[in-house]
Write a structure and sequence with these properties.
- The chain is of the alpha+beta class.
- It folds into two domains: 54 residues, no CATH class; 36 residues, no CATH class.
- The chain contains four helices and four strands.
- The protein is elongated and about 45 Å long.
- It starts with a helix and ends with a strand.
Length: 95
């Protein structure tokens, strides 16, 4: 989160917005991220508008496989993620 807020500050705009998009956030996740965003807002004196959005998805087999790789400790998945995004094989969006 810090690097996105920093980039928005560096733009030196009168009105800057930073949107954080979470996928299938649980209530616990929403509370966690909302608290962090509230802390940033306080530090920034509300100079930058911070927003949290939840996007519900239907995971594909490809997405589930990537998550298994991540959970097993593999961290360099950038090629697989880029390929999945380009080919639209990672997820579908719910309603």
């Amino acid at each position: 989160m810090v690097h996105r807020v920093e980039a928005a500050c560096a733009m030196n705009k009168q009105k800057a917005h930073v949107a954080y998009i979470g996928f299938d956030l649980t209530e616990k996740d929403r509370i966690y991220y909302s608290k962090i965003i509230a802390q940033f807002k306080e530090l920034l004196n509300d100079k930058i508008k911070l927003h949290l959005y939840n996007c519900n998805i239907i995971k594909s087999k490809g997405q589930e496989d990537l998550e298994l790789l991540w959970n097993s400790g593999k961290r360099d998945l950038s090629k697989e993620v880029k390929d999945g995004l380009k080919n639209e094989t990672l997820m579908d969006f719910k309603g």
